[in-house]
Specification:
This protein is α+β, with helices and mostly antiparallel strands. It has one domain (about 1-35, about 65-175). It is about 60% helix and about 20% strand. The strands form two sheets. A four-stranded antiparallel β-sheet has the order 1-6-5-4. A hairpin with a 2-residue loop joins strand 2 (about 85-90) and strand 3. Helix 2 (about 45-80) runs parallel beside helix 4 and helix 3 runs antiparallel to helix 4 (about 130-145). The longest helix is centred in the middle third of the chain and has 32 residues, at about 45-80. It is elongated, with a radius of gyration of 18 Å.
């Protein structure tokens, strides 16, 4: 096995700034795509708005916990012996399985699973319970998935025969064979 590329996401301020900008763009695009009602119909003038604001904050915390938990579950699905750790660094919440090796397709699924599962679930809930704060929550969660999208992009643009080692700060990609 030969090291192909070392990626340090959590300590690379340049990448973090780019991902934060990308996150805001994704949030804005998702917000618009969810066809929010005109500003005049939003409940800014009522006490109900404060309740919705609290619901957004509480829901976002719950979604972040579920998001990282899904990463942890997928780490375990593909490596039952791997240890899963959760952390917070540089304004980023993360799940990691340091030292564990995964095939590219496995790490791709680990990376994209929370977005697919939670966004689908939230869209289903929104069809039944169409509150504005759910739309904002979906947009915020989608923007928060930018780091995962970045991993997926990197995996799609690298050679096929790689193993991915998860580290506490990023990834190591190894050529196999």
């Amino acid at each position: 096995m030969q090291l192909y590329r070392k990626l340090n996401l959590l300590e690379d301020e340049k990448i973090i700034k780019k991902l934060n900008i990308a996150s805001l763009i994704v949030m804005a695009v998702c917000y618009v795509l969810l066809l929010l009602p005109p500003i005049s119909q939003l409940p800014f003038k009522s006490m109900f708005f404060l309740v919705e604001l609290c619901a957004i904050v509480i829901s976002l915390v719950i979604v972040v916990i579920l998001h990282e938990g899904i990463h942890g579950i997928f780490f375990k699905i593909f490596n039952r012996k791997g240890k899963v750790k959760f952390g917070f660094k540089n304004q980023m919440v993360y799940a990691t399985s340091p030292g564990s090796l995964y095939r590219k397709w496995q790490f791709f699924l680990i990376s994209i699973a929370p977005f697919v599962i939670l966004t689908t679930l939230l869209l289903v809930v929104m069809r039944v319970w169409p509150y504005t704060w759910l739309r904002l929550l979906i947009a915020a969660h989608s923007g928060a998935c930018v780091g995962d999208f970045y991993w997926c992009y990197l995996l799609l643009t690298t050679p096929k025969n790689l193993l991915v080692e998860d580290t506490e700060v990023g990834l190591n990609l190894y050529k196999v064979g």
